[in-house]
Amino acid sequence: MNKTILDLWVGLFVIAGIAALLFLALKVGSMNTVNTTDSYEVVARFENIGGLKSRAPVKSAGVVVGRVADIRFDNEAYEAAVTIRLDKRYAFPKDTTATIMTSGLLGEQYIGLEAGGDSQKLKDKDRILITQDAVVLENLIGQFLYGKAQEGAPQ
Q1: Which residues, including other chains, have CB under 8 Å from residue 64's CB and lie 6 or more apart?
Q2: DSSP string across 75-131
Q3: Which end of the chain is less packed: N or C, by CB atoms within 10 Å?
C-alpha cells in the first residue's frame, strides 16, 4: 500500500514536470502571436534576408509590434519579398525604415522598424520602401581578410 502511494506521487510529479516543460517551450517559442484579426500587412523587399524565417518578430524600440507572415522570392526583381503583419495598435509613418537585425552575435534574426517623420501612416498592403539587408557574418570576415591582404601586398 505504501509503495502504491509513493508511485502515485512520483507519477504526479513527473506529469507536473512535463506540463511545466511544455509551458516553457511554448513561451520561449513565442506562441503569443499578434492577433490576426487586429492587424495589417505591409511588404518590404530585401536583396539578402540572411537567416530570417517566417514568424520572426518585428520590433520597434525593442518592443514586438508584429511578426513576419510570409517570405517569397520575386522572380522579376530577384529580391526577397517579406510580408510583415503589424498589430493595428501601432501605426507607422509611410517613410518607416525596415532593417534585418540579429539578436546578439549569433542569435535569431528579426526585423527592426524605425519610424520616419511622414504624416501619412502605412495602411494594409502598403510597401516599406527604405530597407537594409541582413549583415552576413561570412561576408564581413571575407572583406576584413581581403582588406588585410591588400595592406600587406607590396606596391
Answers
A1: 34, 57, 58
A2: TTTTEEEEEEEEETT---BTT-EEEEEESTTT--EEEEEE----SSBP-TTEEE-EE
A3: C
User: Would you say 61 and 80 are in contact if contact means Cβ atoms under 8 Å apart?
Assistant: no
Residue with cell 495602411: 123
What are the tens digits of pLDDT across the range 113-150? 999 999 999 999 999 999 999 887 777 788 888 877 67
Asked whether 47 and 102 are in contact (CB, 8 A), the reply is no
Give this prediction's pTM: 0.70
Torsion angle, CA of 84/93/50/65, rounded to 10 degrees? Answer: -50
Which of 108, 18, 126, 17 has its CA nearest to residue 56?
Answer: 108
Q: Tens digit of pLDDT for each residue in 46-71?
A: 999 988 999 999 999 999 999 999 99
